[in-house]
Description:
Blueprint: H1 5-26, H2 36-47, H3 56-63, E1 68-74, E2 77-83
Antiparallel strand pairs: 1-2
Amino acid sequence: MNSKAPVVIGFVFISYLMFVGITMFFHEPTLEDMDWEDRQSHNQQSLTLLNLGQSIDSVRQSLGGADFSEAKTSGEKNLLVLFYRTHHKKGDGKTTKVVNT
């Protein structure tokens, strides 16, 4: 009596390996899925592609949500300043804003 169990197990295992391989090859993580190191590298690269006068929507599409933002008034203009992490300073598990004094 030949058992089909090794064939079935082998088929399931190969199918699983193919699924994992295809998923890893084609899946691109969203900005929210990236760990802090990948996100920081992405921010550094994306910032070099920004242009003055670019819409806030296109900036957010490239860089995702800001780590911090501040609203300011300069003369008659209202400004929204977006802060994105680009340099790791302290490994405390948080993104903190460094204030230069």
